[in-house]
Amino acid sequence: MQRILFLVAAASVWMLANAAPWPYDERADAAADVRHAIAAAQSDHKQVLLVFGANWCPDCRALDQAMHGSSQHLIDRKFEVVKIDVGNFDKNLELAQRYGNPIAKGIPAVVVVGHANQVVYATRNGELANAGQMSEQGIFDFLSQKVAAASAR
Q1: DSSP strand pairing (79-85 vs 47-53)
Q2: What is the pTM of this model?
Q3: Distances from the Cα of 49 to the Cαs of 4, 69, 122, 149, in angstroms?
Q4: The pLDDT of residue 52 is above 80
């Protein structure tokens, strides 16, 4: 019995050590992160991509994984990215409101912010709330057709 407990404990430690980090920093000052990203985007001639979500959300983690997969080049080329933790819909709600409340119909939600801090594009109808059911190619297609295309206008 002790051997089984040891093996379970060792496996748990190994899984924790090798687990991917959570995509949302729950202790971040999201408002300050947005301000810094807007300043960086202006100097880099990019726009800001706000990604609202939470670590408990499997669809948010799926979107984050896709953003670091086939969509990474697209994202890196066009955007400064800020991931905003909404907790259990009880954190950073003032930021969500400031940018048109894109989380009203689910998370993850994204907003493209232009140089003058104006909303260029936002998912307002829960378009990514099923990101876990979308393929990585489906997420790439959405990001390139909706998000990146809107940022080009």
Answers
A1: parallel
A2: 0.84
A3: 47, 17, 10, 13
A4: yes
